[in-house]
Amino acid sequence: MASLRANFRELRPAIAILVGTSVMLSLAMGLRQSLGLFMPHMTSDLNISVSDFTIAIAVQNLAWGFLQPIAGALTVRVGFRPIMLVGTVLYIAGLAVLAVANGMVMVVLGAGVLIGVALACTASSIAMSVAARTASPQLRSMVFGIVSAAGSVGSAIAAPLGQFLNNDFGWRYGVTGFVVLAVVMVPAAWFAGRADAVVLPPPVAGSVDGGTAGAAFIAAIGSLPFMVMAVAYCVCGMQLVFLTTHLPSYLALCGMDPMLGAQALGVIGGANIVGSLFFGWAGGRWNKLVLLGLIYLVRSLVLAVYFIAPPTPAGTLVFAALMGLTWLGVAPLVAGAVAEMFGLRWQAMIQGIAFVGHQLGSFVGALGGGVLFDVSGTYDLAWRLGVAAGLIAGAVQISMALFRPSKPPRLAVA
Fold first, then answer.
1. CA separation (Å) from 403 to 286, 390, 394, 399?
2. What does the buried/exposed string (b/e) look like for 72-100 if buried means 16 or more CB atoms within 10 Å of the residue's CB?
3. What are the tens digits of pLDDT across the range 137-153?
4. Based on C-alpha coordinates, what's the Rg of the chain?
């Protein structure tokens, strides 16, 4: 109890920052993860195919991934608050364009380009970097877990709301409801921006923290443990975005109640709270990279068991709960590993570099799943490839962590 009181006293000055960051991340991730709910009605109404819709999601993931390091680097130059506020405005604009879309171009512009750019400015890499500035190294992993857990609440709110509006009034009303939720991100980003006033400790001479963006970038891509983590992160993105994009469609194909897809996404969000808190706590005690590998192995086995047999309502919700426990638990572990390897100054940029791999996998998961479905009429090959890739990624990640421990890179001395 005394330890908890001491932890609270340390974090009390940063409560406004942490609450703002958590709300911003929660809505950014929750709204984005729930867009797949509108796919069946939207594709029918606009006369586009499943793969057409997933092109927009694929563009979103690529824009998010490749712009993430740039947004992270800009936070060092202009601060977090301007970047996050621009991102929230673009998010609102993207959803508004999607709500009035009349064809493929507007779907790609709204759900793809605008929301993709917005996520680079508001999602986990930026949020975790803001959170990192509020706590001592001893509490940092726990704080990452708390913020990541809050990022799961958005799905539990957005998915049921979106499905209700979609079923009773149409998909355009569902997206409009998301626009209203996204407006809350503006004040949240403003409060999170107080992190700009936090003074970082002086950088250690010769460390990445004391160098330029270019030097930090070279140090990151030259680190084998970091690059293995980034490649494994690619498989993580492939699995998660495949599910968020295609699970509602898969359940509809199997004759399940359309509301089950929203319920499953909501359960994922709820279980994710527990998983994020656990892995934030565990990351402060055990090897973060080994824990990442275990997440990939467990998640892949759960995927395999679920897709082997036709789904049932109860089985789907149990599957969603198990997936939720391993969903965003990767976020505090990746953020903590990057902070340990490279420090805080360039954390948002370097974490963004790893996130490029995640988003390349997301591109494959969204678009590849749609293409394989259009070609074969089933999701069988898609989930089998996802399971195989996850098992390989988990095994390699654990092997690297155990046999090639990471060390903080140092800048070369001229």
1. 15, 20, 14, 6
2. bbbbbeeebbbbbbbbbbbbbbbbbbbbe
3. 777 777 777 777 777 77
4. 20
Task: Spell out the residues 6+ positions from residue 15 whose beta carbon is closer than 8 angstroms to its own.
Answer: none
In the three-class reduction of DSSP (H, G, I as helix; E, B as strand; rest coil), residue 379 is classed as coil
- 133 with 78: CB under 8 angstroms? no
Task: Return the residue matching tokens 């789904």.
Answer: 311
For every residue of 220-271, DSSP letters joined together read HHT-HHHHHHHHHHHHHHHHHHHHHHHHHHHHHHTT--HHHHHHHHHHHHHH
The set of residues, in sequence order, having a beta carbon less than 8 Å from that of 412 and lying 6+ positions away, is none
pLDDT tens string 346-404: 777 888 888 888 878 877 777 777 777 777 777 777 778 888 888 888 888 888 877 76
Strand, helix or coil for residue 410: strand
Contact between residue 303 and residue 386 where contact means Cβ atoms under 8 Å apart: yes
Write out the two tokens for 318.
């149990």
Q: Is the torsion defined by CA of 280, 285, 290, 291 positive or negative? A: negative
pLDDT the model gives residue 289: 85
- Domain borders along the chain are 10-195+205-403
Model confidence band, residue 4 (pLDDT cutoffs 50, 70, 90): very low
The fold of 10-195+205-403 is: Growth Hormone; Chain: A; (1.20.1250)
